């Protein structure tokens, strides 16, 4: 039965898979970039950023040579900038310690900054044909439904993923087919069981919606930030680099002070993060700034948080973006 399921899924993928740029190659660098970008980010958002990234950093050598500011700017719009810092650090490890050669062994891939077991499994299988499974959110959902194992732990799911992969005979295509099935057919809500090529082998077919666990409510804390907009007609705006850890780590921003209490005035912009709701209050000043920073005439060359861009659009529409 498992071999029949594998045959049906692989046949469906061959006929129905979306034409995505990273599926037209097995070059490790291209696959690696796509896998990192697709973490917690929709394909529609990734597509233009991926194309721009590959055009700007066509290979590992170019990425390793780039400054962190260049890398963060290229990542702008994708969020979760920690991923960009990891991919930059990993490129430098490859350039400095591996003579520019991407590791082919699973353990070597896993040793790179920012690459976990699932991402390493994807790269190792797609690029080098290794029999290593993938276990992203889409694959977890498919496996839980197939086996009616909705409370399965990650350890159990890794075992199920490996067992399913072992029947495929084609690890590279199987992993991509599993991710595609979860992304397009076996959706979190309203899965299209009628369109699923392997619904006959799914213990939750046509009842999967009832088995979807309710998402845990995420507590969102309101934070009030005073953003000091120091401007000068001849020099532009004063920017400082955010701390290396915390919200918007490593990005550029006007000086920010967290307020102890909510001001009486309305915020210029409210920016929602996973666990924070940032209320941004921008005060424009011609006074000389203090502390470390730099005057910037054209902010389009630096990576600024989306929330700050929205604030500047409201308070300083004349500023070049």
Shape: globular
Count of spatially separate domains? 2
Order of helices and strands: HHHHHHHHHHHHEEEEEEEH
Q: Pairing-aware structural class of the strands and helices?
A: alpha+beta
CATH topology call of the largest domain: Endonuclease III, domain 1
Largest sheet: 7 strands, mixed
- Please write the CATH class name of the largest domain: Mainly Alpha
Question: In DSSP terms, counting alpha (H) and pi (I) runs of 4 or more, how many helices?
Answer: 13
Share of helix, binned: 40-55%
Task: Kindly state the number of beta strands.
Answer: 7
Residue fraction in strands: 5-15%
Q: Enumerate the spans where pLDDT stays under 50 for 5 or more consecutive residues.
A: none
CATH superfamily of the largest domain: Hypothetical protein, domain 2
Indicate the CATH architecture of the largest domain: Orthogonal Bundle
Compute the average pLDDT. Answer: 93
Ends distance: 57 Å
